[in-house]
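Quick one, C-alpha cells below:
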C-alpha cells in the first residue's frame, strides 16, 4: 500500500479562533471521519500545528492508488464542505519510532 498525505488549511482563517456553529459541527465530523479511517486501518497519523495564524493540518494514510487517495481526502467532511482547503501528495515515511 502506498502512503499519502493531505494537507489542510482553514478556508476562513478566523475559523481557528472564532468558528461559526456550522464550522464547529463540520470540524467535529472531520474528527470522527479521521477516527473512522484509523479504525479501518487506513490512517497512519493526523494532527495540526498549534499556532492560530497560518495553522495547517496533515493526514498521512495508506491507499492503493492516486484515485483512491483522492477519494479518501475528498470524502473528509471538512474538505467536501469547503471548511478546509486541501492538497494531496504522494508520501513516504523514511524514519519513524514505535509509539
Amino acid at each position: 500500500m502506498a502512503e499519502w498525505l493531505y494537507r489542510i488549511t482553514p478556508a476562513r482563517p478566523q475559523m481557528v479562533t472564532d468558528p461559526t456553529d456550522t464550522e464547529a459541527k463540520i470540524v467535529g465530523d472531520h474528527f470522527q471521519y479521521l477516527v473512522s479511517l484509523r479504525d479501518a486501518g487506513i490512517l497512519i497519523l493526523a494532527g495540526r500545528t498549534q499556532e492560530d495564524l497560518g495553522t495547517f493540518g496533515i493526514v498521512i494514510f495508506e491507499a492503493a492508488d492516486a484515485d483512491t487517495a483522492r477519494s479518501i481526502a475528498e470524502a473528509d467532511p471538512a474538505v467536501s464542505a469547503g471548511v478546509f482547503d486541501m492538497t494531496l501528495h504522494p508520501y513516504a515515511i523514511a524514519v519513524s519510532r514505535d509509539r
